[in-house]
Amino acid sequence: VLCAWPPGTALALAIAQELGSKVPFCPMVGSEVYSTEIKKTEVLMENFRRAIGLRIKETKEVYEGEVTELTPCETENPMGGYGKTISHVIIGLKTAKGTKQLKLDPSIFESLQKERVEAGDVIYIEANSGAVKRQGRCDTYATEFDLEAEEYVPLPKGDVHKKKEIIQDVTLHDLDVANARPQGGQDILSMMGQLMKPKKTEITDKLRGEINKVVNKYIDQGIAELVPGVLFVDEVHMLDIECFTYLHRALESSIAPIVIFASNRGNCVIRGTEDITSPHGIPLDLLDRVMIIRTMLYTPQEMKQVSLPSSFLLSFPLICSQCSLTAVQKGIQGLDLAPVHHLTT
């Protein structure tokens, strides 16, 4: 889609709000692709991948409830010496339906300490991985203190052992970055080298291909769902002929998002060429594939037909007095006819 309107308008924000938070929306400006650290095609592909979402649904077996007991059991150190080690942890969980006592591995006790879990907290423990998540303090302790920086949650319903569906929304670019960032060695020279050269990591096509295979496997198994979003490219005439050639290929991908171009140019020379002119600065082969939406300014007659809510009409005199504004006509009746003039204070 090509929208022929002036750049810098609020229509991109309006599109993002209409789509909502569940649909990925990635705005960019045509001049963003020019960088000394990273290739132009890499910037375009990164924004393409940011506009493609993946909704992962996973059913996990968890133990959830309020902590009623947390007792680490110690034993003699098998390596000898006077110290003792933790052999296991006894934890009691309570829900509205019942209670359950669990015997946990010592490694889970370290996770409990990191989350700062104590009696009265509501937690859940994943049965497969042993991951611990503290959800907050049980609301039965809400009146314990007058002031406390604590989040209170209700007592969980149902059984302690339950199946919970967890939905997580990520983008393909998030998966790329998570798998492409090199960790380096643990020696001091590697750490100093990473500090001295904070260069942006470029993601290879081979890595993206491997991630696409894993994503397609999850989609076939029903674990994940692809959510194609919207890529908004403002001032598209700033792209050069190399970027348009790359866009032409990227748009043919099976997981390509919806791409919206915005430009306010007429016939102009395509950037990167010497004498090739085209409408909106876009090559004709790409221009034939897009649908052009032209926007026009409101005429005075159309501006008169814009209806204002009654709440605004009632509060307008107060707004004028606070902002040092005045209406030309007397009263609110002149709002549909007269402009509002700014007065210098």
Describe the 3D structure:
The protein has 345 residues and is α/β, with parallel strands linked by helices. It folds into two domains: 189 residues, P-loop containing nucleotide triphosphate hydrolases (Rossmann fold), CATH 3.40.50; 108 residues, RuvBL1 DNA/RNA binding domain (OB fold (Dihydrolipoamide Acetyltransferase, E2P), Beta Barrel). It has ten helices and 17 strands. The strands form four sheets. Strands 3, 4, 5, 6, 7, 8, 9 and 10 form an eight-stranded mixed sheet that branches. It has a five-stranded parallel sheet with strand order 2-11-12-1-15, with helices on both faces. Strand 6 and strand 7 form a beta hairpin. Helix 2 runs parallel beside helix 7.
Give the termini separation: 46 Å
CATH class of the largest domain: Alpha Beta
Based on secondary structure, the structural category is alpha/beta
The biggest sheet amounts to: 8 strands, mixed
CATH architecture label of the largest domain: 3-Layer(aba) Sandwich
Proportion of strand residues: 25-35%
The CATH homologous superfamily of the largest domain:
P-loop containing nucleotide triphosphate hydrolases
**Helix fraction bin:** 25-40%
In DSSP terms (H or I, runs of 4 or more residues), the helix count works out at 10
Query: Could you name the ranges where pLDDT drops below 50 across 5 or more consecutive residues?
Result: 185-192, 327-345
EC number: 3.6.4.12
InterPro entries: NA-bd_OB-fold (IPR012340), P-loop_NTPase (IPR027417), RuvB-like (IPR027238), RuvBL1/2_DNA/RNA_bd_dom (IPR042487), TIP49_P-loop (IPR010339)
Family: Belongs to the RuvB family.
Protein name: RuvB-like helicase
